Amino acid sequence: MPKYSLIKNNFSSGELSPILSTRTDVAQYSNGARKLLNVIPLIEGGVKKRPGTYFRSIMDGAKRLLPFVSTSKDAYLIILKEKMLLVYDPRTNTVIKTLITPYLAAATLELHYVHTRYVMYFTHQSYPVHLLECSEDFSNWEFRAMSFDIPPIDEVTTTPNVALTPSDKELGMTISLIAAEYPTWSNTVTYFQNDRVIYANKTWRAVTDNTNSAPTVNNADWDEVTGSEANVFTSAHLGAIVEINGGHVRITQIVDPGKVMGEVVVELTAVVQAIAKSWVLKTAAFNATLGYPKCCTYFKQRLVFANTRKFPNKIWFSRIGNTTNFLETTDDADAFSVVSSSDQSDSITFLVPQKGLVALTSGAEFLIGSEGALSPTTVQVDENTAYGAYPLTRPCRVGNEILFVQRGGERLRALSYRYEVDGLVSPEVSAVAGHIGEMHKGISEATYQQEPESLVWLVLGDGKVASITFNREQEVIAWAQHDFGGAALSMCSIPTELGSDYCYMLINRKGKVVLEELSFNAYTDCQRTITMTGDTFDNLQYNFLENLAVYQSSNTFQFYIDYKKNGDQYTLNNITDKTQKTYYVGQGFTSEVDLFPPELTQVPQSSLSNKAKIQCVWLFFYKTQAPKLNGEILELYTFPESPINSQKPFTGRHLYEGGDWSDLYDVKLTITHDKPLPFHLQAIAIDISINER
């Protein structure tokens, strides 16, 4: 009857899908677990209790959290509500500014944004582009619609059949453009669709191309037009570009239907009348009829927009260093536009800078770049992979990789540039943990908390949370699930100048939306600090919590306190010293590590069907109190002094002996922890006997 000694000292594969419970031939089996709940797999090995949360504020109506990061020293949290934006200072835990926005509740969840220095741009297909701007000392904040010097231009332009005369030509001047009268209809002229003529003292518009077809009410070739339809210029042309005599004029004022004022943005070659159809009227591509851009980003000093209702595959790049100028020419520094198209492409869902500009669509992933400087004449658009991106979950950057949710909303991929293939690759990150997205209605949001443990936090569709300990260098991609005792709505991480990153959560607890801050220093959720004399405190500020837990902590010791509830009062048990003391109160949670049975042979052989008995288990802990193995609490202390004294968190190894014969496949190894105390399992070593008969 052979005896084996095994050790499990890393969880670098995290929680594995149940359908991998028999895949003993892959490395992830020995480095993974059947279940990791409310624990964090560590890059160094082992697992520790997930961070608890501090209560920060009730935020009724809050929908989403965004980062506003100028520097790691000056980072702020943006809280979005319906038609409202709050600027939150994480250093003082206060709202420093409240601003009005046009966005309805549903739109706040669909907003795209990009931030640079003191400005953050917001885009949504149903709203004009807006921006949030602050002063250099962060004392003044403003939210307003973006004003374009020259807006992106609709690719469908018009060439009116009327002469137009400019008053001047010099760059930067404000000049007038005066249109002549529409021509009188002639039976010898060929008229094209949308041409306008005067006939019988009325204005007519050509419905089809025609010659020698006199305009009449009964003639299908013509329509009589009145009002604004008979005008050369209308209010819709404000901000439009007139291309005339080799130059460009931006319309700034509509004087009357035949006269406008405009600014010369590209110098004209001459101050002469432009004959009919020799000048071009270019209207803005962003408006209520054509739609507004869904996507935005910054790339190589250019502000970039993409995906309107009319042009779902089109991308507009601004002029270098001028985010309000989208005048397209062939000059290297000027604005330009491109279209992502292939047999797999669909509307653009996200824009993300990488080695080039990555355009994620619902059908494929494109890389937009150039061999040299990016310019209107050198830009290239290449399809690289064809997985498709889920349109509702913003990608998350981790190092030089972009994590995006695959079309379908349940699986996660990591997009990066690989020099060996000279292109993008998108391996799946959720290959061994696909059950998490499937069980919890997909992945709604992702945020990366770099410090202290390199964690990607995922808000799931049903309000639960998952984490990925992500470190490519150490080959750690470890999933775990988390239950914060409510429905998580949004999570956001922002950097700090020193130490752990801030990480905030919006969570719905019994109908109250609460802003909470994650911290490994908190051992309960929605934790508050009470300083009181006596042993009784009120329930009113905790009535939206369940499974209340109370503990005390010092630099050396930490211990939990039992209590009794009497109506709206909590009374702490066994408090004899009723001088002023500090207590920590929040919602308790249980951590669980459920291990797969060990495989003791090599494929194609298997020991899972053999009878086995665990002779002993060595558990290696670091600063841990009150863990349980298979439901039995482990007595970690030997009490060399007085057992009445408070005990320090335990560091070392603990021996657990005992076990019964059973099939190895059914061997149970579950470590749990349900107290507001520290927990860190470094490794577990097992002595196991096998009956091979």
UniProtKB/TrEMBL annotation:
UniProt GO MF annotations: carbohydrate binding; hydrolase activity, hydrolyzing O-glycosyl compounds
InterPro entries the record matches: CBM5/12 (IPR003610), Phage_gp12 (IPR058003)
Species in which this protein is naturally found: Acinetobacter defluvii
GO BP: carbohydrate metabolic process
Pfam families (alphabetical): Phage_nozzle (PF25675)
GO cellular component: extracellular region
Annotated Chitin-binding type-3 domain residues: 182-225
Name used for this protein in its record: Carbohydrate-binding protein
Coiled coil spans: none
Domain of life from the UniProt record: Bacteria
